[in-house]
Amino acid sequence: MSKRVLTVDDSQTIREMVSFTLKGAGFEVVEAEDGRKALDLLGSTKVDVIITDLNMPNMDGITLIKELRANPAHKFVPILMLTTESQEAKKSEGRGAGATGWIVKPFDPEKLVQVVNKVCP
Amino acid sequence: MDEMDRFKGTYFAECFELLGDMEVRLMALDEGNADPEDLNAIFRVVHSVKGGAGAFGFERIGAFSHILEGLLDAMREGQIAPSRQAIDLLIKATDVLTDLVRAAQSGEELAADYGADTAAALQVLAGAEQEKPPPPATEQDAQPQSPAPSAPAGDGEGAAEHQFFHIRFAPFPGMLQKANEPLLLMRELKSLGKTVAVPDLSRLPLLDELDAEEAYLSWNIDVDCPAGLDAVREVFEFVEDDCDLKIDVVAGVSLEQRSPDTASPDSRRTAATERAAPDKGAARAGVPAPAVVSTIRVDLGRVDRLVNMVGELVITQTMLAQQASRLPPDHYLALTEGIEALSQHSRELQESVMAIRAQPVKSVFARMPRLVRELSAQVGKEVRLVTAGEDTEVDKTVIEQIGDPLTHMIRNSVDHGIEPPDVRASRGKSKQGTIRLSAEHRSGRIVIEVADDGGGIDRERVLAKAVDKGLVAADAALSDEEIDNLIFMPGFSTAETVSSISGRGVGMDVVKRNIQGMGGRVYVHSAPGHGTRLSLSLPLTLAVLDGMIVAVAQENYVLPLTNIVESLRPPAHQVHSVVDGGDVLALRGDYVRLVYLHRLFGIEGAVTDPAQGLVVVVETEAGDRVGLVVDELLGQQQVVIKSLETNYRPIQGVAGATILGDGKVALILDVAGLRAMASFTTGAMKAGTDVPAESQECQR
What we know:
The complex is a heterodimer.
Chain A (H helix, E strand, L loop, with lengths): L3 E5 L3 H13 L3 E5 L2 H10 L4 E5 L7 H10 L8 E6 L3 H10 L3 E5 L3 H11 L2
Chain B lengths: L1 H27 L7 H21 L2 H18 L7 H23 L9 H11 L37 E8 L1 H5 L4 H11 L2 E6 L17 E7 L4 H7 L7 E7 L15 H6 L9 H4 L16 H27 L6 H25 E3 L1 H4 L2 H12 L3 E6 L4 E3 H22 L3 H6 L6 E10 L2 E8 L6 H10 L11 H6 L22 H10 L3 E7 L3 E9 L4 E9 L2 E6 L3 E5 L6 E3 L5 E5 L2 E7 H5 L12 E6 L5 E6 L1 E9 L3 H4 L6 E6 L5 E5 L1 H7 L23
Parallel strand pairs in B: 6-8, 13-22, 17-19
Antiparallel strand pairs in B: 1-3, 1-4, 2-3, 5-7, 8-9, 9-11, 10-11, 12-13, 12-20, 14-18, 15-16, 16-17, 18-19, 21-22
């Protein structure tokens, strides 16, 4: 059974590219536009890995990570942050919130697959 | 690569949407009163544009948006105030960025220094000392991973000597809480090379004392990794802050040590770096969250095809209904009822499909605030624009065409309507004029209004100008309303000089022609000293027309209802022939030129005497009236407009075609074209009368 990844990003372009790359590597991918929608989706769908952007409307990535870690259902789901080079502070904030790891934007498709495989149980 | 093009397409579409939204938000920002959510949203726009640019290698977009992003970040953190000057600059930057995206989309090469001055200004504003170089287009972290373990001894790979590593690894609970698992790390090490891990169980308590979320185990791991130290380190990339980690090179040139950062293990467990994250939810108490709307993007061509097909369906169904109406109802009850149900469903289907193409007028209204801002600055007036009903929806065919007329109307308001601030003050008005742009649905049409609180129409000036241009007789007695409507007459314009903003030759007459060409009407109301209001009434869609079917002998034609003024069977004594051989109809003091359709179209067997047939008085876009002589009126009907141009060629006097219920093609008439074909000259026409001073022959 293939592993399911949730990609959370307000940019449709990014969601499409992540989706395409991971599907090509044999993952199942579901999408959400922001943290709020991600939580709604997770209420009914189980995923194996979550990839989230940090800057999003309605609920940003850091808040999403905190919400997930506070919820027994998602406490131990691997969460990867999408960060940019210049976001060191955000990155450590994300780690503090409980993120498992990170992927730097713009991402190399191969690296994306590699990192997802790295943290995916 | 195909997918890449598709992603790029999505990216460009997304960029334009986002940048459009950014402009709207920038316009809405009052200086010194910036809503933090707006600044965040604007920041996210630029962040997204930058992100995509990096992914596709659009370096110019990436570099420019990087600078813009830096400034916006500082602004949203409150470090830089969003002054008017800053906002003006940001608006300019939005334009530059939009141009860069457009150029990337079309493949056009912009000048090398395009936008450079804007970029420089942005940096000055940002106080750019921390000017980080824009992120490289490719991934910086990329490490080659060799998945397959290679043979242990002497593989002669470059200069690196083959290395074994000894790792001491003790995870903290913090690591587990971040969903990093030792098992996965082992798995990864194994993929690098032969791995032997020996767990240290010394800290493991008895089962009933075991806390599942604590970390009791540590390992001593030996790894044979040809890929080298960096590859090994990379395995622990995410967890290095959450564990005790020591990597020793067992066989190799130097002995390396890697130890966790200076803080002691205990303090690490407790101190999670929790910086107070800006809780956007709480900070905006009382502000309603944006409505959650689920949408999908659909290619416009598909929607148009769908609309077309449904139009065909409606035509076919009308034919069926017509045939069915001829059947004896008793015998074919089921059939008749079935077709009636079909008619209803088709109608509903058509409405739903048309609704897909319906868009809120917001997209057209959105550019107006900026227009008003720029225009008023140019003419030295203070004007603000208020909009209402932006969510009112109308078919995209209408949206595409109302932009220009609306722009002209608003320009007129700023240019002529609103008085200069000192004049306003002397009249006891506020210095700042207001233009109200609104849209609403009214009885099956959309009504758009442009209302200003300016000085109203200067009737003396308008009348004088009209007389001057020979549009009215010098002694004509016109009501206030009639004077107001003079502005719509062709060739009318009160601008003394061709002002740079109103453009050459653009007048309300052009606007009226535009609107009427769409099947709409324009009305003007003016109260001197108080303001002017222009109302446009438009059909909800241009693909479907409310028409009147007329018969000329055995031929049927469709006249747009909006052009029809009245229809009558005139008494014979009201029909007069005039000098040039044509006929006119005396109608309440006016004379209306008659056009005989059977003559124009060469139809045999029609009614030739207007007193025996019908005269349908129609009004052209220019405001002139003609009376079309037909045999009879067959009824009102909504018809689906089929283009004659795309299927055949343009024909003067004909606006399009449709298929009526009986299956026959009926031409939709173009009233202005008919009038021209009947050879009128317009030079000496006077308002209110249609008798030409001189004219060529008119077919009788």
